[in-house]
Write a structure and sequence with these properties.
With about 120 residues, this protein is an all-alpha fold. Helices cover about 70% and strands about 0% of the residues. It has 2 domains: about 90 residues, Orthogonal Bundle (Helix Hairpins); about 30 residues.
Length: about 120
């Protein structure tokens, strides 16, 4: 993961968009642009799936799912997310952050605290 983040930072610098060199206003705009780009890429990923409930659906065995195109869109999502990670001035601790979050989520699921949290949000 460190190598990928290094490549992302190298690419950002080559484009003149290295977030650590932006002032706070530019950085906020940069993060906003990356967030919108991530949203667009997620939408493009969704377009590769037969998801529209208002359209008549073929049986699953007859549906065409273009894995390569979907994977390509998902890679774009990951790239923008990694750009966001570096824009938030997070160092190369992404793996640890992901593993920690997975552990927290699993603990909440095992103890049932995720249900309590969701109930509070609905109020």
């Amino acid at each position: 993961m460190i190598d990928i983040l290094w490549q992302i930072k190298k690419h950002q610098a080559a484009l003149g968009k290295y977030p650590l060199e932006l002032n706070s206003v530019e950085q906020i705009q940069y993060i906003r642009d990356l967030t919108l780009a991530t949203h667009v890429e997620l939408t493009e990923f969704l377009q590769e799936l037969p998801w529209k409930p208002w359209k008549p659906r073929k049986p699953i065995t007859d549906q065409i799912f273009r894995y390569d195109r979907a994977k390509d869109e998902l890679v774009d999502v990951f790239i923008f997310v990694l750009n966001l990670w570096t824009a938030l001035r997070a160092d190369d601790c992404l793996s640890e952050a992901i593993l920690s979050k997975i552990d927290k989520n699993m603990a909440r699921l095992q103890t049932g605290t995720h249900k309590q949290h969701n109930d509070k949000e609905e109020l």
